[in-house]
Structure formats: C-alpha cells, structure tokens
Amino acid sequence: IYTALTQNYELLGYNSNAAKLGEILCQDGAITQGLCVTLYYLASGYSPSQINKTRLPVIATNSPAGSSIRQGQHFAQLITTDKFQKYDYGKVKNLEIYGQPTPPQYNISKMTAPVAIYVGDRDIYSKKEDIDKTAAAVPNLAVYRYIKGFSHLDLVWGIDAPSVVFNDILEQMGRH
C-alpha cells in the first residue's frame, strides 16, 4: 500500500494493485464474490437488502478511500475516554500543543452551521444512544434520520441511498 507522510499523518492511500485485485475478486460470477459480501458486512454491518453485488468491484476499489493511523488512534481514544475531544498526544505534548495536560473537548454547542445526521440502524460504528446524545447537543440540528436496514457504508453505497439519503441531502442543501 502506498504510504506518504504528510503533517505527521501516515496516509493509507489508493493502491492500483489492491484496487485491481478487489475488482477481480468481487466481480459478478467470481467464486470469491461471497467473500467480498462477507467482508462488506464485517466492515459496516449486516444489511442484505441494501447491497448491490454487481457494484462490489466499485465499492472495493473506493472504500476505504484513504485514512490515517492517527485518525484510527483518535477514533479509539474517543471510544475509550467517552469524550468528544481533540487528539491526545500524552501529557507532555498536550501541554506543549494545548497548554493543558489533557486534550480539550470539542464544544458542539458553539456550532452555528445547520447539521444533518444520517445513521443506519445496522451501523456497527454508531450506537443509537450516542447519536441521540450528540443530536440533543447540536444547537442547529436540521435533520436527524435513523434509517432502518442501513449499515455504515449503505449511506453511500446502499441500493436505496439515492432515494433515502442523497435526495434528502440535496433538499437540505437547497434550504440552507
């Protein structure tokens, strides 16, 4: 996998060989297509009514679309601390960067832009209690959609994503 160091982040970028392999393994008629479906469910949640198997080669070559090690670490920190806060570098570096030994928490009550929250009930990364808590704290909540039968990736790749999510987002953008 191609890696580059940018602003102290290790990026996991696009790899044409991995993309080509995903395309071959996930195509219609491939004996390994079932494995691709299983990996999709493991990566985002079980949602058989939303997966378009013929689109798996495209999904496999575009998801994930690049990420960073630090992003994953930050996500883990948010889970283990149960706080919505900046990245924790450790006490010494936190003092240097933030002027305090612990990372400051984000204050979402100061957000002024309208916020739309879309989450699937089968999303393995989002618990309804957490999303409800966040939605209650956002001062300008324009939309909160809890979508039955959708997993994490279905918000982008699901069969019904255009009618259930995309059209609504476009409508919201027109209002705000």
UniProtKB/TrEMBL annotation:
SUPFAM superfamilies from the UniProt entry: alpha/beta-Hydrolases (SSF53474)
Q: What's this protein's name?
A: Alpha/beta hydrolase
